[in-house]
Amino acid sequence: MSTTTPPEIKPGRPVTPQVVAASRIRPTRRRGERGPLGAALMHGGLIVASLIALAPVAWLFFLSLGPDKDDYLHPGKIMGKLSFSNYSFVLQHTAFFDWFKSTMIVALGTTVIGVFVAATTGYAVSRMRFPGYKSLMWVLLLTQAFPIAILIVPMYEIFSDIGLIDTYWSLIVINCTTAVPYSAWLLKGYFDTIPFEIDEAGRVDGLSPFGTFFRLILPLARPGLAVAAFYNFITAVGEVAFATTFMLDDSKYTFAVGLQTFVSQHDAEWNYMAATAVLIAIPVSVFFYLVQKNLVTGLTAGGTKG
Amino acid sequence: MTVAIDRATGKRRGDRAPRPGLGQRIKNGYQKHWYAYAMIAPVVVVLGVIVGYPLVRGLYLTLTDANSLNSARTIGVNHIAATYKYIGFGNYKDILFGPTSYDRFWSHFLWTVFWTAACVALHYTIGLGLALMLNQKLRGRTFYRLMLVLPWAVPTFVTVFSWRIMLADSGVLNQILHSLHLPQPQWLEDTFWQRFAAIMVNTWCGVPFMMLSLLGGLQSIDSTLYEAAEMDGASAWQQFRHVTLPGLRSVSSTVVLLGIIWTFNQFAIIFLLFGPTGAPDAQILVTWAYFLGFGQQPRDFAQSAAYGVLLLSILAVFTSFYFRWLKRNDQLAV
């Protein structure tokens, strides 16, 4: 589905004979084409950038194949003894699957709740102007500015009062506070690109605003929802501060906390850390691959419309 | 693309004209807007309960001397009630003007400002450069895009650990520098290099988001504008200066603001790169506040929350100035 709005029709510049003549005299390339040097430079730049982007992850993967925890100090030795022993150790003798479970519960919980809540809000602020609209947008932006330091202490107090410390709910709720406002912005931008005529047609056919939203707009907004879902998911998976502070039972650690246990002060098991990191990166990258086609269009809508 | 918004503001202009009494206005407003309110209710409730209430409580904490020794806590089966007391603005006075205020607050503040400016500038320029390249008709464009977005797809805590291995004393980066006969900085021990490394890692993590957003912005620029510019004989630089940059204005102003806010509050990278207690001089205000509240014994809840309030105030002031500036230049997309 195309998300670009039909280009505005600009009053065409009159093509005067002089312009035509000028373009005939100078043998210009067609738009989007460039000389071999330009293409080489461009490929060169992109290749270097891709390598830099890839390097830390590739390095981690390489180290995960070396059997000793100090292999990172002399990587040359790894080549001779590549093995998957770190992986089998991590899978069999650590709490990997517990961490996986916690991470998934927290991340999927955040994604489902966050996207749903953000979608209704995004739709409301895209289609309706109501008293309080401006302050709502302002609050949504301002919550992005909330440093964890201001919330983490009172949250800790409140959560321990109501017994939510060390539960998945605590993390889901907290992740929603950061993910929902931004997702709402993103989705507002996306909904703005869906023609109003569709809503009007729905209303004429007797749908309520909620019906229009659920039956017509949500299905059309799937790419936007995918981006919001992705954003919620990676925010939740990557959350460190609250997960570190609120999860006490090591079987409930998320990956962000679990991974830190490999490199505590007295013992740094970098090889297990690397293997675990690779195991974490794979499902996230797969998820990413599934939604990546929608990322650019979705982010654009959110970005350009603010 | 402006159609949608124009129509909506048109509606709004309409219902502004008559101004009946307050009760009537509420009743009218309710009838007219209850759909809208029902739809935003979840967010308002969620934000009110899990941001608003803790915020108020946090504000109160900053006016007390709460720490982990006098707060309510449960040891075994015994519940000990909180005994902290109200001390007015003592915490703020201590943080901003106390005898150790420079070492504790102002030095971190200056570093945080520098860190934010440097990171966002790097994010934006590198992101824009890559987006411009990806926007060309180029073989393998999709492949490059996938590779370049990778740092964003892998969770930050994974890649930060990877950087930690690479930056370690005799890690691969220093081995490469050694083989090139270049000096090998102590990335994770020396203050200057700690800061350098932090900015480098954060740049690496933040570029993909900028790149994707700007790429989207580039793709939404009407291609007839370029054709017209070309007709007029504009050089590549002139096209960039007078078509691309103005066309990116609204997306730029949004992502730069978000970038500044996110970088200013960036917790995970510094926290994980140096460990919970390492590199006191490379800590930005957020991680420093976390250290005060959770990284030391006894935990100083009140000061930690006071840092939080200060941080939020700095950002709120900054954001409103930024908005005013955008409005004056008519760049706001909201």
Task: Describe the structure in your own words.
- The complex is a heterodimer of chains A (about 300) and B (about 325).
- Chain A has about 300 residues and is mainly α.
- Chain A folds into 2 domains: about 40-80, no CATH class; about 85-300, MetI-like (MetI-like fold, Orthogonal Bundle).
- Chain A has helices at about 15-25, 35-65, 85-95, 95-125, 135-145, 150-160, 170-190, 195-205, 210-220, 220-240, 240-245, 255-260, 270-305.
- In chain A, helix 7 (about 170-190) packs parallel to helix 13 (about 270-305).
- Mean pLDDT of chain A is about 80; it is low at about 1-25 and about 300-305.
- Chain B has a two-stranded antiparallel ribbon.
- In chain B, helix 4 runs antiparallel to helix 10, helix 5 crosses helix 8 (about 190-220) and helix 8 (about 190-220) crosses helix 10 (about 235-265).
- The longest helix of chain B is centred in the first third of the chain and has 41 residues, at about 20-60.
- Chain B is globular.
- Mean pLDDT of chain B is about 80; it is low at about 1-15.
- The chains are: A mainly alpha (about 300), B mainly alpha (about 325).
- At the A-B interface, helix 1, helix 2, helix 4, helix 5 and helix 6 of A face helix 1, helix 2, helix 4, helix 5 and helix 6 of B.
